[in-house]
Amino acid sequence: MLINEKLSILYKDWQQKHPGHFVAGGVVDEDMYKGSDAKILFLFKEVNDTAQQENWSLVQLMHD
């Protein structure tokens, strides 16, 4: 199972327990991530803006 598939399951569980605004994250390019020796994690605190009116995905935004 891919990393983002595992995260999707986690996010669905979270949203059921904590309904409301949610911004999903994940790995933008899993093949590149898996193939690199160094693994770097970026955390964006500001992404979960409570003024946001809909749920969205940061990964999808970066793909678009």
What key phrases describe this protein's structure?
64 residues, mainly alpha, two-stranded parallel ribbon
Structural write-up:
This protein is mainly alpha-helical and 64 residues long. Helices cover 42% and strands 6% of the residues. It contains three helices and two strands, in the order αβαβα. The chain has helices at residues 3-17, 30-35, 58-63; strands at 23-24, 56-57. A two-stranded parallel sheet has the order 1-2. The longest helix has 15 residues, at 3-17. The chain is globular.
Summarize the structure.
With 64 residues, the protein is mostly helical. It has helices at 3-17, 30-35, 58-63; strands at residues 23-24, 56-57.
Mean pLDDT over all positions: 83
> Whole-Å distance between the termini?
24 Å
| Class inferred from helices and paired strands | mainly alpha
Q: Which descriptor suits the 3D outline?
A: globular
Cα-atom radius of gyration:
13 Å
Residue windows where pLDDT falls under 50 for at least 5 positions: none
Report the count of strand segments: 2
Write the layout of secondary structure elements.
Blueprint lengths: L2 H15 L5 E2 L5 H6 L20 E2 H6 L1
Parallel strand pairs: 1-2
